Amino acid sequence: MTVNGPGDHPRSLFDPPPGTGNGPAALLRVHGLRAGYGPARVLHGVDLELAAGEMVAVLGPNGAGKTTMLRALSGLVRGRGSVLLDGTELLGRAPEEIVRLGVAHVPEGRGLFAPLTVEENLRIGAHLRPANERAEDMRRVLAWFPVLRAHLSQPAGTLSGGEQQMLAVGRALMTRPRLLLLDEPSRGLAPVATRRMFDVLRAVGSHDRVAMLLVEQDARLALEFTSRALVMESGRLTVGGPAGWPQAGRRPSLFRPGR
After folding, report:
1. pLDDT confidence band for 238 (50 / 70 / 90)
2. Distance between CA atoms of 27 and 170, rounded to whole angstroms?
3. Residue 176 above 80 pLDDT?
4. Which of 7, 87, 107, 110 has the greatest number of CB atoms lying within 10 Å of its CB?
5. Contacting residues for 84 by C-beta, under 8 A, at least 6 apart
6. What is the pLDDT of residue 111?
7. Where in this chain does the record put each ABC transporter domain (predicted)?
8. What is the pTM of this model?
Protein backbone atom coordinates (compact mmCIF):
# COMPACT_ATOMS: atom_id res chain seq x y z
CA MET A 1 0.00 0.00 0.00
CA THR A 2 1.38 3.41 -0.94
CA VAL A 3 0.43 7.04 -0.50
CA ASN A 4 1.66 10.12 -2.30
CA GLY A 5 4.18 12.23 -0.45
CA PRO A 6 5.67 15.61 -1.31
CA GLY A 7 6.07 15.99 -5.06
CA ASP A 8 3.70 13.05 -5.62
CA HIS A 9 6.47 10.46 -5.08
CA PRO A 10 4.94 7.17 -3.91
CA ARG A 11 5.61 6.39 -0.25
CA SER A 12 4.80 3.13 1.51
CA LEU A 13 2.60 3.22 4.59
CA PHE A 14 5.20 0.96 6.19
CA ASP A 15 7.75 3.82 5.95
CA PRO A 16 8.26 6.67 8.45
CA PRO A 17 6.58 10.02 7.74
CA PRO A 18 8.72 12.44 5.71
CA GLY A 19 11.13 14.48 7.79
CA THR A 20 11.11 12.18 10.82
CA GLY A 21 14.22 10.17 10.01
CA ASN A 22 17.76 10.68 11.26
CA GLY A 23 18.99 12.38 8.10
CA PRO A 24 17.90 11.05 4.72
CA ALA A 25 17.69 7.41 5.85
CA ALA A 26 15.46 5.72 8.43
CA LEU A 27 17.15 4.45 11.59
CA LEU A 28 15.80 0.91 11.09
CA ARG A 29 15.32 -0.71 7.69
CA VAL A 30 13.92 -4.25 7.54
CA HIS A 31 13.66 -5.98 4.17
CA GLY A 32 12.43 -9.49 3.42
CA LEU A 33 12.78 -10.71 7.01
CA ARG A 34 12.06 -14.43 7.30
CA ALA A 35 12.31 -16.39 10.53
CA GLY A 36 10.87 -19.37 12.37
CA TYR A 37 11.60 -22.25 14.70
CA GLY A 38 13.22 -25.32 13.18
CA PRO A 39 11.35 -26.25 9.99
CA ALA A 40 8.34 -24.10 10.93
CA ARG A 41 8.45 -20.75 9.11
CA VAL A 42 6.69 -17.94 11.00
CA LEU A 43 7.74 -14.76 9.18
CA HIS A 44 7.35 -14.72 5.41
CA GLY A 45 9.12 -11.56 4.28
CA VAL A 46 8.62 -8.56 6.57
CA ASP A 47 9.45 -5.07 5.30
CA LEU A 48 9.34 -1.95 7.46
CA GLU A 49 11.21 1.24 8.28
CA LEU A 50 11.37 3.18 11.52
CA ALA A 51 12.67 6.69 12.16
CA ALA A 52 14.57 7.93 15.20
CA GLY A 53 12.10 9.05 17.87
CA GLU A 54 9.16 7.31 16.20
CA MET A 55 6.84 4.97 18.11
CA VAL A 56 5.14 2.35 15.93
CA ALA A 57 2.66 -0.32 17.04
CA VAL A 58 2.30 -3.79 15.53
CA LEU A 59 -1.19 -5.21 15.92
CA GLY A 60 -2.67 -8.55 14.97
CA PRO A 61 -4.08 -11.83 16.25
CA ASN A 62 -2.23 -14.26 18.46
CA GLY A 63 0.13 -16.45 16.45
CA ALA A 64 0.56 -13.90 13.66
CA GLY A 65 4.33 -13.69 14.19
CA LYS A 66 4.62 -10.42 16.13
CA THR A 67 6.76 -11.82 18.96
CA THR A 68 8.92 -13.76 16.50
CA MET A 69 9.59 -10.54 14.60
CA LEU A 70 10.86 -8.81 17.75
CA ARG A 71 13.01 -11.83 18.61
CA ALA A 72 14.51 -11.86 15.13
CA LEU A 73 15.32 -8.15 15.34
CA SER A 74 17.11 -8.64 18.67
CA GLY A 75 18.99 -11.78 17.59
CA LEU A 76 17.11 -14.24 19.79
CA VAL A 77 15.76 -16.02 16.70
CA ARG A 78 17.80 -16.56 13.57
CA GLY A 79 16.47 -14.62 10.62
CA ARG A 80 17.13 -14.20 6.92
CA GLY A 81 16.79 -11.11 4.79
CA SER A 82 18.18 -7.78 5.95
CA VAL A 83 17.88 -5.74 9.15
CA LEU A 84 19.87 -2.51 9.03
CA LEU A 85 20.27 -0.27 12.09
CA ASP A 86 21.67 3.04 10.88
CA GLY A 87 23.27 1.16 7.99
CA THR A 88 24.75 -1.70 10.07
CA GLU A 89 23.48 -5.21 9.34
CA LEU A 90 22.14 -6.92 12.48
CA LEU A 91 21.25 -10.36 11.13
CA GLY A 92 23.84 -12.99 11.96
CA ARG A 93 25.10 -11.14 15.04
CA ALA A 94 24.89 -12.39 18.63
CA PRO A 95 22.25 -10.77 20.88
CA GLU A 96 24.95 -9.17 23.04
CA GLU A 97 26.49 -7.52 20.00
CA ILE A 98 23.09 -6.25 18.89
CA VAL A 99 22.62 -4.68 22.33
CA ARG A 100 26.00 -2.95 21.97
CA LEU A 101 24.87 -1.58 18.62
CA GLY A 102 21.86 0.05 20.28
CA VAL A 103 18.92 -2.39 20.36
CA ALA A 104 17.11 -3.20 23.62
CA HIS A 105 14.32 -5.77 23.92
CA VAL A 106 11.68 -5.91 26.67
CA PRO A 107 10.16 -9.38 26.21
CA GLU A 108 6.68 -10.51 27.14
CA GLY A 109 6.86 -11.58 30.78
CA ARG A 110 9.47 -8.88 31.49
CA GLY A 111 12.41 -11.25 32.05
CA LEU A 112 13.38 -9.80 35.43
CA PHE A 113 15.60 -11.56 37.96
CA ALA A 114 12.98 -11.82 40.71
CA PRO A 115 15.32 -12.58 43.69
CA LEU A 116 17.66 -9.69 42.83
CA THR A 117 16.97 -6.16 43.98
CA VAL A 118 15.64 -3.41 41.77
CA GLU A 119 19.06 -1.77 41.72
CA GLU A 120 20.79 -5.02 40.79
CA ASN A 121 18.37 -5.58 37.91
CA LEU A 122 19.04 -2.07 36.62
CA ARG A 123 22.80 -2.54 36.88
CA ILE A 124 22.56 -5.77 34.91
CA GLY A 125 21.03 -3.72 32.13
CA ALA A 126 24.11 -1.49 32.11
CA HIS A 127 26.74 -4.22 32.19
CA LEU A 128 27.75 -3.55 28.56
CA ARG A 129 27.98 0.20 29.13
CA PRO A 130 31.28 2.00 29.94
CA ALA A 131 31.85 1.86 33.71
CA ASN A 132 32.24 5.63 33.99
CA GLU A 133 28.80 6.23 32.43
CA ARG A 134 26.70 3.81 34.48
CA ALA A 135 25.96 6.25 37.32
CA GLU A 136 24.56 8.75 34.83
CA ASP A 137 22.55 5.98 33.17
CA MET A 138 21.04 5.11 36.56
CA ARG A 139 20.22 8.76 37.28
CA ARG A 140 18.43 9.11 33.95
CA VAL A 141 16.34 5.96 34.38
CA LEU A 142 15.30 6.92 37.92
CA ALA A 143 14.30 10.33 36.59
CA TRP A 144 12.00 8.62 34.09
CA PHE A 145 10.67 6.18 36.72
CA PRO A 146 10.95 7.92 40.12
CA VAL A 147 8.77 5.28 41.79
CA LEU A 148 11.67 2.82 41.46
CA ARG A 149 13.95 4.97 43.62
CA ALA A 150 12.00 4.03 46.76
CA HIS A 151 12.39 0.32 45.97
CA LEU A 152 16.06 0.07 44.97
CA SER A 153 16.89 -2.42 47.75
CA GLN A 154 13.67 -4.42 47.31
CA PRO A 155 13.61 -7.77 45.45
CA ALA A 156 12.15 -7.28 41.99
CA GLY A 157 9.72 -10.15 42.48
CA THR A 158 7.92 -8.28 45.28
CA LEU A 159 7.01 -5.27 43.12
CA SER A 160 3.53 -4.70 41.74
CA GLY A 161 2.87 -5.55 38.11
CA GLY A 162 3.12 -1.92 37.07
CA GLU A 163 6.36 -1.44 38.97
CA GLN A 164 7.85 -4.59 37.45
CA GLN A 165 7.03 -3.34 33.96
CA MET A 166 8.65 0.01 34.76
CA LEU A 167 11.72 -1.88 35.97
CA ALA A 168 11.84 -3.99 32.81
CA VAL A 169 11.68 -0.89 30.62
CA GLY A 170 14.13 0.94 32.88
CA ARG A 171 16.61 -1.93 32.63
CA ALA A 172 16.34 -1.76 28.83
CA LEU A 173 16.92 2.00 28.90
CA MET A 174 20.09 1.45 30.96
CA THR A 175 21.68 0.23 27.72
CA ARG A 176 21.12 3.68 26.14
CA PRO A 177 19.30 2.13 23.16
CA ARG A 178 18.58 3.75 19.84
CA LEU A 179 15.87 1.17 19.16
CA LEU A 180 13.57 -0.22 21.87
CA LEU A 181 11.48 -3.34 21.19
CA LEU A 182 8.55 -3.94 23.53
CA ASP A 183 6.38 -7.07 23.59
CA GLU A 184 2.91 -6.32 25.00
CA PRO A 185 3.99 -3.72 27.60
CA SER A 186 0.42 -3.30 28.90
CA ARG A 187 -0.25 -6.98 29.63
CA GLY A 188 -1.42 -7.49 33.21
CA LEU A 189 -1.33 -3.80 34.12
CA ALA A 190 -4.14 -1.74 35.60
CA PRO A 191 -5.40 1.04 33.30
CA VAL A 192 -3.76 3.78 35.39
CA ALA A 193 -0.39 2.01 35.35
CA THR A 194 -0.72 1.35 31.62
CA ARG A 195 -1.31 4.98 30.75
CA ARG A 196 1.55 6.08 33.00
CA MET A 197 3.84 3.63 31.21
CA PHE A 198 2.85 4.88 27.76
CA ASP A 199 3.23 8.51 28.85
CA VAL A 200 6.82 7.74 29.88
CA LEU A 201 7.56 5.83 26.66
CA ARG A 202 6.30 8.71 24.56
CA ALA A 203 8.40 11.18 26.57
CA VAL A 204 11.54 9.02 26.26
CA GLY A 205 11.06 8.72 22.51
CA SER A 206 10.60 12.45 22.12
CA HIS A 207 13.40 13.53 24.48
CA ASP A 208 16.07 10.93 23.68
CA ARG A 209 15.06 10.20 20.06
CA VAL A 210 14.66 6.50 20.84
CA ALA A 211 12.77 4.63 18.12
CA MET A 212 10.22 2.18 19.51
CA LEU A 213 8.54 -0.82 17.92
CA LEU A 214 5.90 -2.29 20.19
CA VAL A 215 3.61 -5.27 19.96
CA GLU A 216 0.43 -4.44 21.84
CA GLN A 217 -2.74 -6.37 22.68
CA ASP A 218 -4.72 -3.20 23.44
CA ALA A 219 -5.27 -1.83 19.95
CA ARG A 220 -7.15 1.28 21.04
CA LEU A 221 -4.38 2.25 23.44
CA ALA A 222 -1.72 1.62 20.81
CA LEU A 223 -3.53 3.73 18.24
CA GLU A 224 -3.80 6.56 20.78
CA PHE A 225 -0.12 6.72 21.75
CA THR A 226 1.78 5.73 18.61
CA SER A 227 2.44 7.64 15.41
CA ARG A 228 1.82 4.66 13.10
CA ALA A 229 0.26 1.24 13.36
CA LEU A 230 0.97 -1.88 11.31
CA VAL A 231 -1.11 -5.05 11.13
CA MET A 232 0.58 -8.46 11.04
CA GLU A 233 -1.32 -11.48 9.78
CA SER A 234 0.16 -14.92 9.07
CA GLY A 235 3.74 -13.70 9.27
CA ARG A 236 3.32 -10.69 7.00
CA LEU A 237 2.63 -7.00 7.53
CA THR A 238 -0.57 -6.64 5.54
CA VAL A 239 -1.66 -3.04 6.10
CA GLY A 240 -0.41 0.03 7.89
CA GLY A 241 -0.74 3.75 8.25
CA PRO A 242 -0.94 6.66 10.67
CA ALA A 243 -2.43 5.79 14.06
CA GLY A 244 -6.19 6.08 13.71
CA TRP A 245 -6.04 5.37 9.98
CA PRO A 246 -9.51 4.54 8.60
CA GLN A 247 -8.83 0.86 7.89
CA ALA A 248 -8.29 0.17 11.61
CA GLY A 249 -11.91 0.88 12.38
CA ARG A 250 -12.98 -1.68 9.80
CA ARG A 251 -10.90 -4.47 11.38
CA PRO A 252 -12.92 -5.36 14.51
CA SER A 253 -10.73 -8.40 15.24
CA LEU A 254 -8.00 -5.98 16.37
CA PHE A 255 -10.17 -4.74 19.21
CA ARG A 256 -11.02 -8.05 20.83
CA PRO A 257 -9.52 -8.77 24.28
CA GLY A 258 -6.25 -10.64 24.17
CA ARG A 259 -5.40 -9.65 20.62
Report:
1. confident
2. 22
3. yes
4. 110
5. 28, 29, 30, 31, 90
6. 80
7. 28-259
8. 0.83
